[in-house]
Amino acid sequence: MIEANTKADEQRRVTITTTQIKQRLATINQQLANAANETQDIEQRYGDNTKINITEVDDRMETNAAVQQQKQLVAAAVENEKLLTSQQQRLTDLADSPYFGRIDITEDGEAESLYIGTATFMNEDDEFLVYDWRAPIASIYYNGTLGPVAYETPMGPLTVDLTLKRQFKIKAGQIEHLFDTNETVGDELLQAVLGQQSDEYMQNIVATIQKDQNDIIRDTTADLLIVQGVAGSGKTSAVLQRIAYLLYHSRDQLEADQMVLFSPNRLFSHYISEVLPSLGEKNMRQVTMAEFLSHRFAGLQVENLFNRFEKDQTNFPELTQAMRRFKESADFMQAIQAYVKQVSNQPLAFNDLYFEDRPFFTKDQINAIYMALPHNMLPGDKFLATKSTLIQRLKRQINLEVQLDWVADRIDGLTNDAYRAIIGQREFASGDDEQAFIAREIVKAHFDDLYTAIYNDYFLDVYTEYQQFLATVCPSEMPANVWQAMIDQAAQNNERHLVGLSDAAPILYLRDLLTDSGQNHGIQYLFIDEMQDYSIAQFIYIHHAFPNAKLTALGDYAQDIFTASYQNGHFIDQLTAAFPQLKLNQIQLTKSYRATAPITNFAKALLPPETALQAFSRDGRLPRIITTTNTDSHAALVQELFRLQQTHATIAILTKNQQTAHQLYASLTPDEQVTLIEDTTRSLPKGILILPLYLAKGLEFDAVVGYDVSATTFNQASDRDLLYTLITRAMHDITIVGIGQISPLISQLPATLYETPLPLLTS
Ligand SMILES: Nc1ncnc2c1ncn2[C@@H]1O[C@H](COP(=O)(O)OP(=O)(O)OP(=O)(O)O)[C@@H](O)[C@H]1O
Fold it and tell me: Could you give the ipTM of this predicted complex?
């Protein structure tokens, strides 16, 4: 129990701190106003300078230098303004809520109180009034219980005595709550935070990070950090705080754009987009696997995970499943490596390179170049040497061509503007030099398409090469005719500019290994959320594509909605086995924070009894199971929505597939104010939303209605993971609606875990 005078003392300190923050803010505001004026000033002068007459040759050089200098001045001024704006934002946030924690420590007999907030604030005398939550000493706040505690310093671990841990909730400079705690971070504040309504954007969790989440955030040693965490255990939250932590500790070596987060869909990207800015950091890059693949397969259409899932629902025979399992495995990617080694001394599937409708380099010519190279050269090097020979030969052709009459004719026909566009600002020693330059530019432009084709490796027919590879790896248990039919299908896909999803990573891998290309060495960290939605083959390809990146992979094998129908075995074991050379750290999160205890316990009952899953102790209503008839289903749903709307702002109706979502949406009247969410949707409005479950991955809603969770729709063992994912999207309330008969997966659960309201009375 906190004494009243303790609160008054603490409030006094808050006031002193916020007063100083506001004073600093006033200075920054002034500097910002000056900086804005300065930028405007320079821009204006820059504008005036460009008005100097540039047709006089003597003036031209001088004007260029002046313009360059002005440009640099503008860039510096803009940079300065940006810096001041970010300081302004940080101070504004601190003035409202300067800190959320206090630790009292004793070190060598000397006692000290430290206050922890979202950013450091030092007063005029360089005393820390607030420590950044990422400072090494702040780890005590997250990790330590009262008594001796160690924390990392640049000189090695140091032990201090922790004598007090206090948590605050401060708003508009006023303490709303404060608690003393001996837990790592007390539950009281967490209760308050988790009880709030969902928001369009995810919130940062700095004030209440839990110990095991802190381990994820502060890991700096692993090359591959794998986090298996139950639904709602804070995996996504932890990874975002981790990004903020890494940026803070490597300010000089690491930029936000050297980090990439693979996210499940665009909606999710939008949902998490405010966390880093709220911590004063820039966002990392975000990409979905579909975007990544379609970028790398420019011009071809790659099968989409969501569409494939929908198709699997109607027809997915066992042999197709086995085929997919193989193509998505580490063995398959290893077979590609072996194939590349083996074919490097054989002719490759090259394409003729055409120019003006006739082959300029035939595939035989290209193969002759390739095969003449030393046998012991690496395949990628051989390819690059071949490419370089092709470019040299093209250059030779360009040198010959400049002498030809058609070029002289073309030069004669140039208008003044076209002529000037070619020479630009260049100066020439003589007229002949100028002519020679123009002739060369014209011939280069003439051969540009051919050059681009060579440059982009279009002379390798990777699809045919892939089909040849496939012909060498038919698994013994697979009937040869079925395997051949799959190869024929891959060839047909290619004709139609399509790529099957399970072929995508292998084809890219084959292409990159044969051509020694496709690697991005600049990315330092990669984060893969919902790791269970990626195949091992995709992981291997991603690691190949970003060879210098440390990898953080997070997920929950119980939420493998896309692969549960055909994968078996333990995903994490397969993943670790695929990267034996990487330094591994594995962390498990078993406590679920998102939902109330009744919802989490209900979801848990679906999983095998040995599953380590613990509900955070937050009270709430029992889940409701409504079984209705086809005729009454609409009325029952509307009635339930009406009930939920009394207390919740965002209610998601989740369906198994898109078709059900569309049909349901069409059947609701406009005054029911529902929004249909699709693959292309970028942001989440409040109100009632309808979406297929797979688009709700990683998201959360105040209330969820699982619609048509019936004996006919959710009846396979693999549907368990779908249902678990569905239920765990809810924060405060869940209703499951079954039509005809409720899914056996639900009816098997202990009746104490839910309630069944009386059936709706219809006329
Ligand atoms: N330490 C914490 N303090 C406050 N809130 C937390 C904490 N950890 C998790 N949460 C909250 O719990 C919810 C779930 O977190 P998050 O989405 O990060 O979990 P997840 O493990 O990625 O979930 P899922 O796998 O189900 O998508 C979020 O609302 C998040 O803000």
Answer: 0.98
